[in-house]
Each structure stands twice: as structure tokens, then as C-alpha cells.
Specification:
Strand content: 25-35%
Shape: globular
Oligomer: single chain
Radius of gyration: 28 Å
Number of strands: 31
Number of helices: 15
Helix content: 25-40%
Number of domains: 3
Distance between the termini: 22 Å
CATH architecture of the largest domain: 2-Layer Sandwich
Bound molecules: adenosine-5'-triphosphate, magnesium ion
Largest sheet: 9 strands, mixed
CATH superfamily of the largest domain: Bira Bifunctional Protein, Domain 2
Structural class: alpha+beta
């Protein structure tokens, strides 16, 4: 690939549109361009990275016994109505109408379509297990598309779906996918941590996420893990051991009063406005569990753990109330709910930490108002339980020895045990030996191909540019002709290009008429693992300089050893 001919529009300056280092680098190094919010064009270098990741993922999926298919991107809305997700996914689901005014959907995931497919084709349980996958573009109208390819509105995903007759079969299919994911990410040169996660809107029983640990702002997910055992979970999911009873405050209770808090809906906005710490606030979160309405009270600096809340409420799950329902119930928009004056129809469940607080702040159940100096005598608590999420430094719930540490990660893949949510909704059943129809048990498994590419950049870079892991780098070697104006040198570099290419290496060849300094800066920015420089001094001696992108020192190699040296050092 000659740089004089291809399309690698590098930028000298940091683009204003990007906050995250990996996003800046991909724009600056000429890998991507934005078309509109959350929608990107992949330029030639990016195309090669994506092809390499896809190839590795495909090979691991094939090895695990999955079969590649391609499903349509455009779906009839009817299918999504049958599973209820036409409503449940809300505005994230991209919707449109065809010329006959029939509602259609742009797929953001394919449980509906794949279940509809097997429903018509699989009759006997003897055809199971089956695993079908595709690598394809997905559409989601994300509320906050950001960070370049990390959270796009259009992105590339590998999605796989397993079909089994029983739970034991699902466990096996699931484990195969977990193994395939670990192998695929390792082959991409990425260490991942597998964490327990919530099943969320997908439905189902058990789920895991595969995280690239970055400890930068790009790590949208917080992970709690134990240094002493293999426990790791994302923040929403992490369990905590019951604590010793927290101590009550010695402060004397004061009479409560109402204060104006215009537009202050979030904890951050309220604490900023009132100039207090978040642990002086009590958040009131409204849920439904079956036909029970619940107000969950937790300290402002804590996260709710919905699994624990559901447990305390005695239901299998809880579901947060939507804005209009909250408004009907409390008389105020979301953000101003509070426990004072809530009717008997709402069960108030307080975290154990709340049950000992004094003079705290809550929403006033009125627009733009909060109550300060609220005390436990001001409202009713129906039940006290641990409903907050785990925190760093807590003891590990698994081994009970280590203390949990918090890391930030980028979710590059996930696996779900779906169960029968989709097969039941769409009527995908198989017949057992006794002639009974049984819904197929499903699993669903995603890898964000485009997000993985950017996660690698977020994980591996320095102040000069990207440092690609070899297996997913857009080229094996970056060949620089130090002075392409010098005909003899250019000829020598052309020859090196030919022989490296013939030896099976993919070479990005900087044959542009540019200063050597500019070429070196671009090579560092683009981040190919090896750089070979053909310069005047070397030409006289018959040696070329070779340098690894992640090392400062360069070495020189006689021309006849160059190919072997590179091949030997190359990533597997
Ligand atoms: P998130 O919690 O980040 O929104 P998700 O739970 O919605 O992710 P899935 O629906 O399971 O993710 O999608 C599978 C994979 O696709 C994710 O692990 C991630 O790598 C990728 N992915 C999801 N949403 C996006 C997006 N908007 N842009 C790029 N990649 C995405
Ligand atoms: Mg999402």
C-alpha cells in the first residue's frame, strides 16, 4: 500500500470534535471520518483493522461450531411488536415506514429475526444444538452517541444465537462462546476481564461482559474485582456482603423546610446547587415489581442494586417507572421524588444506611423543590434492607478475603443466557420424544467489532500516536523512504517494498515526497508495529534501520536478513 496513492488523510492538529484520546488518534491518523453524530466512514486503514478483527472472530466462532449467516438489516416492525421490544426499546430502536406506510425497523440486534428463522425450520429437538452468527452493521439511536466508534448509532457487531433443548445444553453452548470470546480477544492482542453483568432489557438469567481495562474516561463501565480470587462484576451487578450495622449520627434533628432547586434533577445538580456532599442526600427511585409500586431510598452517593431491591421487594425483578408514571404518582417530574407524603399504595424500602441518617435532603414531590433537614420521623419506611450496590474496598462476596478494587473498562463483548423469552413470544418450539412441544432455549452473544478496534487504541497508545497490537494492525510493517526525491534511494526503497511484499508481509510504504521528519511523525501516529527506514547512510552500507513502534531503540539489519528478522519478530 503506497502512501502516495492511498487515502490516509492525517491531521496535524487535534480535532475539536473528539474528547477521548483514541477518538482523536483515529481521526488524526486518518482511520475514520464522521458523517454525522455517531455515524462514521471507515477509511482504508480502518477497513483493514476491522477485517482483521472480523477474521479472528469468525475463525473462533467457526471453531466453536457456530455457522455464519447474513440476516437483513431491515425488519418488519410486526416481529418486534410480538416480543414487546417495539415498545420496550423506546427511541433507541430506529424506525421507518416503507412506501405502503408499513412500519419497519433497522436492526440493532437480531433475536427477533433469528428466532423467526428457526421457528419455521426446526421441528425436532434432535436438530439441536444450533448456533448461528453474523458480522453485520447495527443501528441504535443511542441517547448519547459519543467517543467515536465506542458508542455509535451505526456500528459493526458480531452477533451469535444459540438454540438448545434444555438448560444443560444452554450451559454447554454458553461455555463454548465464552471460550471462543477469550480466544478471540487474546488473538487480537487484547487482555479482557470477564465480569458478571445484569441481563437488563434482554431478559434472561445470566450474563457476562468482556472488558478491556483502560482506567481512562473511555472506560464507560466500572468493574469491581477481587485481587485474591477471580470474582469480577460490573458495578450494577456486584454483590456486597451485609455490613455491620452502620452507626447513627450524633447530630440533633432539625425541623424540615422546603427549598427551591430550579432544574436541579440529578444528584450532581442538587449537590452543586445546595453546595452539600452527595452523602447528605437520599435518592428516591420509583419501581414496579409485579403490581407492587416501590420507592427505593438510598444515600445520594450510592448506586442502587436492582437485584437486591427485587429480592427485598419479594419479586423476581423490578422495573423502573417511566417519567409519566412517576409524575402521576408524585405530582412532580422525575428528579424531584421524595418519601415525605407518599401514599400507602407505594411500599417504601430504605437501604440500611438511610435508616440511620439525620437532617438529610430529599425531593419534595413538587417541581423544582427539595426538602432539607428531613428526618426519619417525617415519613414511613416499610422495610429496611441492603439495596445499594457494592463499593470499592468492600470485602469480596466470593472469597470473603480480598477487598474489591474498582477499575474502568470498555465492554467489547457480552454473552446472555436468554432462556425462552424470544422462543415463547414467537412460538419457536421443538417436539420432544413424547410428542410435547417445548420452547427452544436460547443464548445470545455479541462482540462490538468497531468498538473493539477503538478499545485497542484506547488501551495501546503514547503521546505520539497509536501502538497497534500486531494481529490487528492495518499493516505488518511501515516502510519509510527517508528521501523519495533521491532517485537511488527511492529505487532501493521500491526494492525493499517488493521483497517484503513478496515475502508475504503487508507493507504500508511511505513513498511520498515529504521530509523524513514528517514521515516519521506519521508512522508513529499511524502505529504499525514495525518501521523499516531506507536512508542514505544505510544505502552506502547495505543495511536498513528497523524499529519497533513500542520501543525507542532502533537497530540495523543487513538487507538479506531483513525479511527473516521481521518475520521472526512478528506477532503470532
Ligand atoms: P452498552 O451497555 O455499552 O450500551 P449493550 O449492552 O447495549 O452495550 P449489546 O446489545 O449486548 O450491548 O451489544 C453487543 C456489543 O456491541 C457490546 O458488547 C459492544 O461491544 C457493542 N456495542 C453496543 N452498543 C454499541 C454502540 N452504540 N456502538 C458501538 N458498539 C456497540
Ligand atoms: Mg446499549
Amino acid at each position: 500500500m503506497r502512501m502516495s496513492r492511498t487515502f490516509i488523510p492525517t491531521l496535524r492538529e487535534d480535532p475539536a470534535e473528539a474528547e477521548l484520546v483514541s477518538h482523536k488518534l483515529l481521526l488524526r491518523a486518518g482511520y475514520i471520518r464522521k458523517l454525522t453524530a455517531g455515524i462514521y466512514i471507515y477509511l482504508p486503514l480502518m477497513q483493514r483493522v476491522l477485517a482483521k478483527i472480523s477474521r479472528i472472530v469468525r475463525e473462533e466462532m467457526d471453531k466453536a461450531g457456530a455457522f455464519e449467516i447474513t440476516m437483513p438489516v431491515l425488519h418488519p416492525a410486526e416481529l418486534w411488536q410480538k416480543t414487546g421490544r417495539y415498545n420496550d426499546l423506546g427511541p433507541e430502536l430506529m424506525r421507518l415506514h416503507d412506501r405502503h406506510d408499513r412500519p419497519m425497523v433497522l436492526g440493532g440486534t437480531h433475536e427477533e429475526v433469528v428466532t423467526e428463522l428457526v421457528k419455521g425450520e426446526l421441528r425436532s429437538y434432535r436438530k439441536l444444538p444450533l448456533n448461528l452468527y453474523q458480522i453485520q452493521v447495527k443501528f441504535r439511536d443511542e441517547i448519547r452517541p459519543r467517543f467515536g466508534l465506542m458508542r455509535g448509532r451505526e456500528f459493526i457487531m458480531k452477533d451469535a444465537y444459540s438454540f438448545d433443548f434444555d438448560e444443560a445444553g444452554l450451559d454447554l453452548s454458553y461455555q463454548k462462546m465464552v471460550d471462543a470470546y477469550q480466544a478471540a480477544f487474546a488473538r487480537c492482542g487484547l487482555d479482557t476481564v470477564m465480569v458478571e453483568s445484569d441481563t437488563g432489557a434482554m431478559g434472561g438469567k445470566s450474563a457476562h461482559e468482556f472488558m478491556v481495562i483502560v482506567d481512562t474516561e473511555g472506560g464507560e463501565a466500572t468493574i469491581l474485582s477481587c485481587p485474591d480470587c477471580d470474582y469480577a462484576a460490573n458495578l450494577e451487578r456486584a454483590e456486597s456482603l451485609p455490613k455491620e450495622q452502620p452507626k447513627s449520627s450524633s447530630e440533633a434533628p432539625r425541623p424540615r423546610s422546603a427549598v427551591d432547586t430550579p432544574n436541579a434533577k440529578t444528584i450532581e445538580e442538587v449537590t452543586d446547587f445546595l453546595n452539600v456532599k452527595a452523602n447528605r442526600l437520599v435518592k428516591t427511585l420509583l419501581y414496579r415489581s409485579g403490581d407492587q409500586l416501590i420507592a427505593a431510598l438510598i444515600r445520594g452517593d450510592r448506586q442502587i442494586n436492582e437485584t437486591k431491591l427485587a429480592h427485598a421487594a419479594g419479586g423476581p425483578t423490578v422495573e423502573m417507572l417511566d417519567g409519566p408514571t412517576v409524575e402521576k404518582l408524585t405530582g412532580a417530574p422525575v428528579g424531584f421524588a421524595g418519601p415525605v407524603g407518599l401514599g400507602r399504595e407505594v411500599t417504601v424500602i430504605a437501604d440500611e444506611e438511610v435508616a440511620v441518617m439525620v437532617n438529610f435532603i430529599v425531593g419534595a414531590n413538587a417541581r423544582d423543590k427539595h426538602l432539607v433537614d428531613v428526618n426519619l420521623s417525617d415519613f414511613r419506611i416499610d422495610k429496611t434492607a441492603v439495596i445499594r450496590g457494592a463499593e470499592p474496598a468492600e470485602r469480596c462476596p466470593r472469597c470473603r478475603k480480598g477487598r474489591l478494587v474498582s477499575r474502568r473498562g470498555i465492554e467489547v463483548g457480552n454473552t446472555f443466557k436468554l432462556g425462552t423469552k424470544y422462543s415463547q413470544a414467537l412460538g419457536a418450539t421443538v417436539t420432544d420424544d413424547a410428542g410435547n412441544e417445548r420452547p427452544i432455549i436460547m443464548g445470545s452473544y455479541g462482540i462490538g467489532i468497531t468498538r473493539t478496534a477503538q478499545a485497542a487504541v484506547e488501551r495501546f497508545h503514547d503521546e505520539r500516536g497509536i501502538i497497534w497490537p500486531g494481529p490487528i494492525a492495518p499493516a505488518d510493517c511501515h516502510l519509510v523512504c527517508a528521501n523519495s526525491d533521491d532517485a537511488a534511494l527511492a529505487r532501493a526503497a521500491d526494492q525493499v517494498y517488493e521483497s517484503l511484499t513478496q515475502a508475504g508481509l503487508f507493507v504500508l510504504y511511505d513513498d511520498r515526497v515529504e521530509r523524513a521528519g514528517v514521515k516519521f511523525a506519521d508512522a508513529d501516529l499511524i502505529g504499525i508495529p514495525w518501521r523499516v527506514t531506507v536512508g542514505a547512510k544505510g544505502l552506502a552500507k547495505g543495511t536498513w534501520e528497523i524499529k519497533r513502534r513500542d520501543r525507542d531503540a532502533a537497530e540495523s539489519a543487513p538487507f538479506d536478513q531483513l525479511v527473516d528478522r521481521l518475520k521472526q519478530e512478528m506477532w503470532p
